Amino acid sequence: MTSKSDHHERMANMTFAAVYPHYVTKVEKKGRTREELHQVISWLTGFNEQALEKHISDKITFKHFFQKARLNPNAHLITGMICGYRVEEIENPLTQQIRYLDKLVDELAKGKKMEKILRTE
Fold first, then answer.
1. Which Gene3D superfamilies match (predicted)?
2. Among the listed residues 27, 32, 103, 26, the one whose alpha carbon sits nearest the alpha carbon of residue 72
3. Interatomic CA distance for residues 97 and 8, integer angstroms
4. Domain that includes residue 24, residue range
5. Which of 7, 12, 96, 115 would give a disulfide with 63, using CB separation of 3.0 to 4.6 Å?
6. Which CATH number is 35's domain given?
7. How far is CA 66 from the centre of its chain?
């Protein structure tokens, strides 16, 4: 196994519940709300509030989280740098989906307008 595939596997096996509190902290420190975070997650994944809470309480991995998601058809419009990578150039589909979510959380925390984050403009 190469270090690149190790990286992808590590990301796939992380639980959404382990990362979620960091998302909340990041956006709330910048004056955004948990509700806005949930709106962004829902836009990307199609999960409603109840499904999102269940995935958190069940401690599902990112692999299963995105397997259950209905990825927004406009997700491909999420571009830019995250963690030193251009999200549109990430070849592993699951890693790209995780980084899409990271990018949306970053945009929310940076104060971007919701219409721009949700790619409706």
1. uncharacterized protein sp1917 domain
2. 103
3. 11
4. 3-117
5. 12
6. 1.10.8.290
7. 9
